[in-house]
Write a structure and sequence with these properties.
Length: about 375
Amino acid sequence: MSSLPAQHPDSPPRLTFAVLAVGTVAFFTLGLIQASYGPAFSFFQTHYHIALANVGLIASTHFLGSALGNPLPGFLLARFSTAQVVGWSLLLLALGALLIAFAPLWSVAVVGALLCGAGLGSTSGVLNAAYASLGTQAVNLVNAIFGIGSMVSPLLLTGLGPHGLQWPYVVVAVCCVLSLLTAQLCGVPSIHVPAGTAPDRILTGREHRSLFVFALLLCLYVGLEVGFGTWSGKHLESLGIRNTALVLSGYWGGLTAGRILTGLFGGRVKPGRLILAGAGLATVCALIAALGQPQLAALAYIVAGLALGPIFGTSLAWLTHSLPARLIPFLLLSGSAGGVLMPVLLGQFYVRSGPQVVPLILACVGLLVIGAILTLNRALSQRS
């Protein structure tokens, strides 16, 4: 498995089909597995005869594995190519999916989810680093494909689940093999290093501070994205909205559309300004939802997805303007932390203060995201 030919340091590869191919197939696969657990809960219950209170363990274990897998490429890329790390990560993901598919015991299926998470986290870490180093458009396009995979996943479970719990996860393993074949045929993009910079250089004190703020930004952003996606449905239910699943689908669809649009046109806007606009609009949407008018709240949550779409990938591309892209896998760990903590935090506030607190907490986190972006804007402008 070989990386793409080395490019002149000032000339990252053009966004051709070959450059985007492995990211397209791999991120679709990541979206499939990440969104599979919730729709499969009832199948897991029936297959393993477990209580509803225990079935969520498999999703939590997956996200734990993802958090552990995120920083792995940061260590491996010092000695191995992006193609090698992607290959090993996809094999780990395929192994985990097959373990879930054919696990004789619930505990074995949970171990499979841990391996799936680790493979996903590692694959995401190395490919996000590679595509972020190529610019805003590349990283947003491949992350948009992740969203499409997440949207397809519930349909896959609905169609194949009744025929046997193993089949959806066999499909995931097959997609891993297709990703590996695509990597062989089209190559895996290497991490682009700007001219005049060393990929393993020692960071200055100011760069360390910027790195900390970037980590905080990713933690807050992922928490905000997951918070909208997990608890907005409960808030809408309290307002009398029956078809909350449709609204949530619209939210994730908006998130995907935002990334596609950024991938097509985002290169024309400075990254800092683009994500600031997105965070501002998402915060306004949360405040509109807090007004308590059912239809307006539902629309606000869908628009929030569109607003949040550009932030993740564009933030990673923005980081590579001032810091080495090899740091991205480590920073994704902070994003995973936000994804773990935010649903728990919202759940605690929900129990204590009721559903109306959900959009208010989301608006507060949105303001913190804006504060982190403004801090980075100021710090990076001082450097330049």
